Amino acid sequence: MSIRSRGAARLAVVTAASGLLAAGAVAAAGSAAAEEVPRQRGGATATLGGLQTYDQAVVREGGSSQRVPAGLFEMSVEDGGTLQTYCVDIHSPTQKDARYQETPWSGTSLNRNRDAGRIRWILQHSYPQVNDLAALAKKAGASSLTEKTAAAGTQVAIWRYSDGARVDAVDPQAEKLADYLHKSAQASIEPKASLTLESPAVSGRPGERIGPVTVRTDADAVSVAPPGDSAASGVKVVGRNGKPVKSARDGSRLYFDVPKDAPDGSAALSVQASTTVPVGRAFTSETRSQTQILAGSSESTVSATATADWGAKGAVPALSAEKNCARGGVDITASNKGDAPFTFRLMGVKHTIEAGTSQTVTVRLQEDQAYDFTIVGPNGVEKRFRGVLDCRTEGSGIGTKAQPANQPSPASAGGTAVGADLAETGSSGNTPLIAGIAVGFVLLGGAAVFFVRAKKDPTETPEEAATEK
Fold first, then answer.
1. How far apart are CA 281 and CA 229, in angstroms?
2. How many CB atoms lie within 10 A of CB 201?
3. How far apart are CA 412 and CA 427, in angstroms?
4. Closest among 468, 208, 258 to 358, alpha carbons compared
5. Mind listing the pLDDT tens digit for each residue in 1-55?
6. Quick check: helix, strand or coil at residue 47?
7. Facing residues of 373 across strands?
8. DSSP states of 362-411
9. Residues with Cβ < 8 Å from 17, sequence gap 6 or more?
10. Using CA atoms, how far apart are residues 88 and 113, in angstroms rounded to an integer?
11. Angle at Cα 392 formed by Cα 433 and Cα 89, nearest 5°?
């Protein structure tokens, strides 16, 4: 539901970054195929279908006003399920068919928003959670509500808290609903993830149980899939009692049981469940498509993955990464379960993780900064992490030359299709904004590019919650 392009500043970052990366960065990465690690700790992954139930709203700012569509988006969950969402970033475009991932509030603009809990209250007390529209209209003092006007009124109330926007619903009854929800909203806590794993990366020695990886879910049970080559490697996923497990529940602790004679290596386990995703969970995309917040969920498939690395001697690091909007960057965590220090450089600074310890380093980024880097560890292991730092909404004025659209644009579903927005998002949600960047980390508006490689135990970043409980 973009009302304007974020414009030249973003384009300048992309242009500068592309220019710096063009010469040498791809070559430096080498030809080895890197294992792509999930960018989030788990939950629902879905594809944006577009704005489905909506009416009109008017945004006023800086003496200008603009009409925009306001209402419910629909997403299709991978492996089954449907989500309904509202947006929480009125100034950003949406990309039809963009891929979204369930994300904690700490990785979105809601992290800095003291009214985020009020937004969740609105979601819980309005359409579609409340589908008795006559009763909802009565509470709001409206004569009647349709699905379209109820969705528009709800979105308008959310925008007032998510963006601090001066926005009103065009339909008078929808406006009454928006006013009622805005004035009545109360603080609520962030909902728990539908499914996540703590920790997403662990390490240890062959011949021992490596972990734990703790299951956190609102589902009754989750299925546990062992490493794909477990029959050949002998690696098993076991519980605290050492017995192989095929299912788990909230609070279950899982371990990688690695044979003593196993060569140095790595493995991954996956868990999956069918559940309804909690209302108020945030969803973000790596394609700079605006952040969404969940309003309703069918029974949906959710999943999460954790990795383990092991070695007989030397440093044995576990690496993971997570967005940290409170600090404006990406937290990179390295733990070392080996018997020798693990050393790497990050932003020109040398970091040493002593045996048996862990350290988290925050790589600070500019807003809307794209990052894409490969972590090279011992034994030839390479892991790739990528994403976009999208931690703020943009409250600058409405472009006076923007032409309002009565219908959502196919390229930016739900948004006003201003030329700059279309140029920025492209015609496909799957088109990367920075094309051709294979393995690199663009920092500070393209001012630097770096690769983290230890000398013999090259290993890089990410965040790991390898907390042994």
1. 34
2. 28
3. 8
4. 468
5. 544 433 333 323 333 332 222 222 222 223 334 455 544 568 999 999 989 999 9
6. strand
7. 385
8. EEE--TT-EEEEEEE-GGG-EEEEEEE-------PPPPTTPPP-SS--SS
9. 370, 434, 437, 442, 445, 446, 449
10. 11
11. 80
Q: Which two tokens stand for residue 194?
A: 């539908």
Give the integer Cα–Cα distance in Å for 286 and 129.
28
- Residue whose C-alpha is closest to residue 88's, from 199, 1, 182, 206: 1
Tokens of 195: 């499914």
Given a contact cutoff of 8 angstroms between Cβ atoms, the answer to whether 200 and 193 are in contact is: no
Under 8 Å between Cβ of 230 and 256: no
Backbone phi and psi for residue 335, each to the nearest 5 degrees, phi listed first = -115, 155
Q: For residues 41 and 322, give the distance between their C-alpha atoms in angstroms, rounded to a whole number.
A: 8
Instruction: Enumerate residues 6+ apart whose C-beta is below 8 A from 307.
Output: 37, 200, 201, 202, 266, 267, 268, 318, 383
3-state class (DSSP) for residue 92: coil
The rounded Cα 162 to chain-centroid distance in angstroms is 17
Q: Round to whole Å and give the CA distance between 33 and 36.
A: 9
Number of Cα atoms under 13 Å in the Cβ half of residue 144: 1
Q: Mean of the per-residue pLDDT values for the chain?
A: 76
Q: How far apart (Å, rounded) are the C-alpha atoms in residues 112 and 391?
A: 8
Contact of 111 with 105, CB cutoff 8 Å: yes
Residue type, 51: L
Q: pTM of this prediction?
A: 0.75
Least confident segment among 124-128, 366-370, 461-465: 461-465
Say if CB 93 and CB 4 are below 8 A apart. no
CB neighbour list of residue 146: distance below 8 Å, 6 or more residues apart: 133
Rounded to the nearest 10 degrees, the angle between the axes of helix 147-162 and helix 172-184 is 40
Considering only CA atoms, which of 210, 223, 309 is closest in space to residue 267?
Answer: 309
- pLDDT per position as a tens digit, 56-66: 999 998 889 99
Query: Could you tell me which of 226, 250, 379, 239 has the C-alpha nearest to residue 306?
Result: 226
Q: Which H helix or E strand runs over 274?
A: strand 265-275
Strand order in the sheet with 35-36: 35-36, 382-388, 370-376
- Which three-class secondary structure state does DSSP give residue 82? strand
